[in-house]
Amino acid sequence: AIALRDLVDGTTTFMSVWCDAGVLNALLGCSQGNDIIRNSLEAIREWYRQPAEERKGIMGPRTYAKGLQVIVEAQCPSQIYKLWQHGESNREKFWMQWNFAMQTGDMTAAVNAVLDRETLAEERTELQWGCGDDVVRMYVERPIVCD
């Protein structure tokens, strides 16, 4: 077992996990009054304002992804590419996939674009980055291989 305090450092203001459905709401930590959480709570309110048949995806991961998206778009749009080492040429493709996923509720394409699963293990070196007033730390959900 790993203690929650060991998943962050003294500067981390938001921590969670990328999963196929968005941002995993089962494991997250944040500083008091965190804007990513505030935006996520607003996304949850929006979720429940919609008729049930119009809701797309899984509420928790989708709304926390939306909360993070609002902050990244407003305060540090270039930093998300630095984290996953996507170049400027992939910026438009990434946001198109992300926005499509947010509209349809199917987060798999957007998360896969972010994670670039084929090269992630070799290239991803930065797990925490600054974004405006926040210091974001994102882990990646991985399947457990049992042989």
Question: Would you give an account of this structure?
Answer:
- With 147 residues, the protein is an alpha+beta fold.
- The chain is built from 6 helices and 5 strands.
- Strands 1, 2, 3, 4 and 5 form a 5-stranded mixed β-sheet that branches.
- The protein starts with 13 loop residues before the first strand and ends in a 7-residue tail after the last strand.
- The model is unreliable at 82-89 and 117-124 (pLDDT under 50).
Keywords:
five-stranded mixed sheet, globular, alpha+beta, single chain, 147 residues
| Largest sheet, strands/sense/barrel | 5 strands, mixed
Radius of gyration: 15 Å
Shape descriptor: globular
Terminal residue distance = 21 Å
Q: Helix count, per DSSP?
A: 6
Q: Which structural class fits the helix and strand makeup?
A: alpha+beta
Query: What percent of the residues sit in helical stretches (DSSP H or I)?
Result: 40-55%
Number of strands: 5
Q: Mean pLDDT, as a whole number?
A: 78
Order of helical and strand elements: EEEHHHHHHEE
Poorly predicted spans: 82-89, 117-124
Q: What is the strand content?
A: 5-15%
* Quaternary organisation of the protein chains: single chain
Fold blueprint:
Layout (H helix, E strand, L loop, with lengths): L13 E6 L2 E2 L5 E2 L4 H15 L9 H17 L3 H6 L6 H14 L3 H8 L4 H4 L4 E4 L2 E7 L7
Parallel strand pairs: 1-5
Antiparallel strand pairs: 1-2, 1-3, 4-5
Helix pairs in contact: 1-2, 4-5
Summarize the structure.
The chain is an alpha+beta fold. Helix content is 44%, strand content 14%. Strands 1, 2, 3, 4 and 5 form a five-stranded mixed beta sheet that branches.
